[in-house]
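Minutes, structural biology subgroup

Action item carried over from last meeting: produce the structure token record for Probable purine permease (Cucurbita moschata). EB confirmed the sequence was re-checked against the source entry. Recorded below for completeness.
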Amino acid sequence: MTDNQQSIVEEEGTSDNQQSILDEEETSGNELPLANLKRWEWWLFVSLNIFFLIVGQAAAVLLGRFYYDQGGSSKWMATIVQTAAFPILFIPFFLIRSPMDTSSSANPPSMLILLLIYFSLGSLMALDNWLYSAGLVYLSASTYSLVCASQLAFNAVFSYFINSQKFTILILNSVIILSSSSALLAVNDDPEHPVGVSKSKYFIGFICSLAASALYALILSLMELSFQKVMKKETFSVVLEMQIYTSLVATIVSVLALFASAEWKSLPNEMASFGKGTVSYVLTLVGTAVAWQTCSVGIVALIFVVSSLFSNAISTVSLAITPLAALIVFHDKMNGTKKAKRH
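Output recorded by EB:
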């Protein structure tokens, strides 16, 4: 090897070492991409978010039903608390966020595109939350949860057309089994409903919950599409960004609707006449808000790392938890397809 060749090799080696050092510094100075997680770390991340989703959703539904049972009546207040706790997400957001965010896209989306995504999804989320709140007014916690199983079937359809999700026999079987419960409720001749709710109002609650499930499934598929086609980032901070900004929009829309509907005028009397007292009223709303936000983080994170269909499938697991919890807390009784009487 000539002196010139040796010099070139040494320079190339030095360049490679410098690039390696720069890469290490960049990685240490930025949030670790989720794509670089080890297998056990990935499963730990997924399991943690499954826990957030199931426990958060079950707690939120029970607290929402408790709010109505104890005298709460504002649908828009019940809607606001589903997204109002988003500021707590700024804590983990600023803890994990780095000065330079790692992205797999050389051309990040413009601010206008991001604003359109957040505004559109946030507005749809506000409408969806109101439909869920309207449904929970007239349904028991267990019945409400079973009706919401239909969202998996809707999501399967949207995932196929929007996200190009391939169907397998296992997926189809899961969709059919988990969605059949809502169909059984639709033909039930003796539906369970809270005290003072007529059959016509029960039907309204059923339709609202069914419509909310369809819209929710659409929102999940659109979120997945946004992650895949627009944002193209590999860090958990983008999950928190999606949840924070869509929740911000949804909360603003819900608050405006609360004042536009004049429901805000009844809130002082609602608080004063709450069955368990004023303190319990405030704690119920705060607890519901935190529970929904915990659930939402799990949902969005699972969409990001797996798919919207998987996230929706996991949310239906709460069907085995929420009715059982309602059985203990509210004394719902279950037999047959879902016949119940409240003590």
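Discussion: The chain has one domain: 37-93+110-330.
Next step: EB to file the record with the rest of the batch.
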